[in-house]
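Action item from last meeting closed. Structure (507 res):
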């Protein structure tokens, strides 16, 4: 019987990839995915108010993309697009998911994990999910919770179901809530109140962190959340322990992975999303308060993964990627001194806007990759790359052809990822409250109505009723709208954007 590796090499040769893949067998893949971390929040990208030695090490030992993007300026649509290879704006129901949302990615869909599982990988996801769980109508938190990650290509999952600021505040391992007492069943609602648990609105005296906007419903661990929850007392998490808990699970997945089989780990951090409640050992590590301290904690999580790979002798054979699901936000719902203590730190770096924004800071995020056997150390690339390209890129890496219907907006950027080419995408559709088209250094934002700032966060949103046009090469801060000076270019880009929308695919 022919081995998995032999079949892989034969397929690679048939696809003309023999030279590309002959240097090593399929690498293990670890995808480290941060939450709300901005382009400028890393030391390797200019931050001085916070130190990120583990992430700086990744950049020093691999490649750093200066024009790397999340698919969207918010979390759920970015995660959807990265795992499916389809822009989320093509599908209804892919906006920011409620805590009790049904599964957004349906079983049978070709996904990033299913592509790698087909190639013989053991696959796991640990950390924040926020892509819904269960059938239409939402999950039964007291029974089997499916469909979910295990039904779309993952072999193992340990999840924060939605976000730390949304109920239910419990972990889900595979199909069950961890530590649930059957005599204390969980109920969750996002409309009217359920149960008698105190809320932040009713009992602010019980809070150790107060909301700045919203986030005033059921209190868990002294912090009021979005939504109402009752029951599940023994299963509820302690925010200060969350990074430790999910990092332990991520490390254990790597440790338990069979050595004769490659693995794919999607390690999705909660940090630095609100509520920012780092473990006491990280409190005070920066002068920026909880937001800065949470960055330090996140970097520690990265260091634990890198140390595990070193200890097990797996570093050379593992492709490690780091990115974030959208740009930065400072005040996102709690009084945690993030605004007052920001100082000179620029979370989005030279880019304007942040989370929720059409400006470049909404989707341009850290994008690092290390694979010692293949990626030259210390490489900096200006190639335009996006997380939506991971399905097609990993399919190519493992010698697979995607069907035409699969990953419709995902392009094979393997040469760019490996530092062998400076050519990335020739265009990218950025997604916030409206759509933008990038072509080289040019950026067109389609006509956009509405306020110029997010009323809650103060984020500059970008966009204008007649559309906007910027040249990022000369104006990275998007300060000068050129749409009246370059009408032909604006019209051509608007036409292309509409064509991409209408086509239903861009690959």
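Sequence:
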């Amino acid at each position: 019987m022919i081995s998995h590796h032999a079949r892989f090499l034969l397929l690679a040769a048939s696809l003309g990839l023999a030279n590309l893949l002959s240097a090593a067998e399929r690498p293990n893949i670890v995808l480290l995915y941060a939450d709300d971390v901005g382009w400028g929040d890393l030391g390797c990208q200019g931050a001085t108010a916070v130190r990120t030695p583990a992430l700086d090490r990744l950049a020093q030992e691999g490649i750093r993309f200066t024009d790397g993007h999340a698919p969207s300026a918010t979390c759920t649509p970015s995660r959807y697009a990265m795992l499916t290879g389809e822009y989320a704006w093509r599908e209804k129901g892919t906006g920011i998911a409620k805590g009790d949302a049904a599964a957004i990615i349906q079983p049978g869909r070709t996904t990033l994990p299913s592509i790698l599982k087909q190639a013989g990988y053991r696959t796991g996801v640990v950390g924040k999910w926020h892509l819904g769980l269960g059938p239409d109508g939402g999950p039964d938190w007291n029974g089997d919770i499916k469909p979910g990650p295990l039904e779309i290509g993952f072999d193992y999952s340990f999840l924060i179901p939605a976000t730390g600021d949304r109920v239910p505040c419990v972990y889900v391992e595979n199909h069950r809530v961890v530590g649930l007492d059957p005599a204390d069943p969980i109920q969750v609602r996002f409309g009217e109140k359920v149960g008698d648990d105190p809320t932040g609105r009713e009992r602010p005296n019980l809070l150790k962190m107060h909301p700045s906007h919203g986030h005033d419903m059921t209190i868990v661990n002294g912090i009021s959340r979005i939504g109402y929850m009752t029951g599940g007392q023994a299963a509820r998490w302690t925010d200060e322990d969350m990074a430790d808990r999910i990092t332990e699970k991520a490390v254990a997945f790597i440790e338990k992975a069979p050595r004769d089989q490659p693995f794919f780990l999607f390690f999705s951090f909660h940090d630095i999303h609100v509520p920012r409640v780092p473990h006491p050992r990280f409190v005070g590590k920066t002068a920026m308060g909880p937001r800065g301290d949470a960055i330090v904690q996140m970097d520690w999580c990265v260091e634990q993964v890198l140390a595990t790979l070193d200890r097990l002798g797996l570093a050379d054979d593992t492709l490690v990627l780091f990115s974030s699901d959208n740009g930065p936000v400072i005040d996102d719902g709690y009084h945690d001194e993030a605004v007052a203590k920001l100082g000179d730190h620029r979370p989005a770096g030279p880019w304007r806007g942040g989370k929720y924004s059409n400006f470049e800071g909404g989707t341009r995020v850290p994008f690092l990759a290390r694979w010692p056997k293949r990626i030259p150390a210390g490489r900096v690339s200006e190639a335009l790359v996006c997380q939506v390209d991971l399905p097609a890129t990993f399919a190519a890496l493992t010698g697979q052809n995607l069907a035409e219907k699969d990953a419709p907006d995902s392009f094979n950027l393997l040469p760019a990822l490996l530092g062998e080419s400076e050519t990335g995408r020739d265009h990218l559709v950025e997604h916030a409250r409206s759509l933008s088209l990038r072509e080289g250094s040019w950026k067109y934002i389609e006509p956009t109505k509405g306020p110029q700032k997010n009323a809650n966060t103060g984020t500059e949103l970008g966009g204008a009723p007649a559309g906007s046009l910027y040249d990022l090469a000369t104006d990275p801060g998007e300060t000068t709208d050129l749409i009246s000076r370059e009408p032909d270019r604006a019209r051509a880009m608007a036409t292309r954007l509409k064509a991409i929308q209408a086509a239903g695919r861009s690959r």
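Note appended to the action item: The two ends are 36 Å apart (CA to CA).
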